[in-house]
Structures are given as structure tokens and as C-alpha cells.
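quick one before i forget lol
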Amino acid sequence: MKTDHLMTRESMEKGRALMVSLQDACQAIGSTILRLFEACGRLVIFMGHAVVNVFLPPFFPRLIVRQLVDIGYYSLPVVGMTALFTGMVLALQSYTGFTRFNAESAVAGVVVLSMTRELAPVLAGLMVAGRVGASIAAEIGTMRVTEQIDALSTLSVNPFKYLIAPRILAGTLTLPCLVLLGDIIGVFGGYMVSIYSLGFSPGRYLTQTWDILETMDVISGLVKAGAFGLIVALMGCYHGYNSQRGAQGVGAATTNAVVSSSILILIFNFILTQVFFS
């Protein structure tokens, strides 16, 4: 009897411990979900303020031009090199794969469709996120840490108009231009490999490329690029503007800006692809 009583007591204690652990796990999951929704709400509110200030006066043309140069012109070498070698590798991989099915003539179509629809906008967005998103977050985060943003507010200068709006506008406008150039450079890279390495006929390759390409293929890539540019500039500004105090806070804001931009680019790439080609 005494042994049975002890076993029953041990089983009850184990049950209580299991219930406590399950309760702690549920609380942790719930708090994580609540923090996620809270962060999404803050981001949506921040985005609303930023977009509204893009269209409302006063405007700062000099700052807008400076951001157009910083985001667009200085990103051109990175995007161009990425697109060039991506097109070259894509032509090689497509040829080695299609030779198994005697479909080598489809290489031109695969290169041009892959570059215009997917690879050029996605890779350009990721490259710009690594270069520009980190720079924006570090710059604005440093201004937050050194209280320069508070000084702007003291001087009756709206930080969203002076810091956020020019970067949002420049990112949204410049990335489609970069992607359009990336399309051309990537297709040219595939052309060079196909002609000089794989033995394709130049005239036939260009004819196949032109015949298979449609206007919607290019437009869908440019729309994606505009969305990706908005995401990169928005996440850089958001994490920099909400940076914590100290050098560690600026570093965390920079990392979060790049990571969140990259994840959102991949998510919205799927959503926009579903919208255009479903």
C-alpha cells in the first residue's frame, strides 16, 4: 500500500511538471507571436508615414538626387557583374542539361526568360540590400545614437521628410533601372558563352531570344524591382531609425536590415510571380 501510494504521488508530480513545461512552452510561443504582430504593426505604421511624406511638400531635390546617385549609380558595377556572370553560368548549365534531351536550341529562351522574370530582379535586390540597406541602416542608426535625429526635430525639420522620404523614393526608382540594365548585361553574358564557347549561330541565337521574349516578361521583372527597391530602402530606414543606443545597437540594426530585406524580397518574389503568372 505504501509503495502504491508513493508511485501515485510520483506520477502526479510528473504530471504537474509536464503541465508546467507545456504552459511555459505555450507562453513562449504566444509571446513570440505577439511580438511578431507588434513588430509588423510598427513597420506598417512606419511605412505609412514614409510613403505619405514622399508625396507631401516640402521636397528636398538635392537630397533626392544624392540618394539616386548613391543607390543607383554606385550599385551599377555590383549589379552588372552579378548579372553578367549569372547569364554566363545559366547558359552553360542550361546547355549541359538540355543536351541530355537533345534540346540545345532552348538555351536562348531559358536565358532570356530566367534573367528578365526572376534572376535579374531577385539578384539585383539582394545585392542592393547588402550594399545599400546596410549603409542606410548604419547611417540613420548612427544619427539616432548621436541624437542628430532629435536635433532635426528640435529645429522643426521632419525627419521623415529629410531622411526617410528621399531614400524611399530613390530606392523605388533606381532599382528598376538597374534591373533593366542587368537584363541586357545578363542576356549578353549568355550570348557570349553560347557563341564563343558552345558554338551557337549568332543570328539564330538572337532570333530565338527575340521571338520568345514578351513584353510582360520584362514588365513583371521591373515591377518586382520597384517593389524590391521599396523593401530595401524601407527596411534600412526602419531599422536604422529604431536603432538602440550604442555601437552594438547600430550593428544589430545593420544586420537586421540586410536579413529582413533579403527575406522579404524572396517572399514578395513568390507573391508577385503568383500574381503575374498564375
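fyi The chain has a mean pLDDT of 85.
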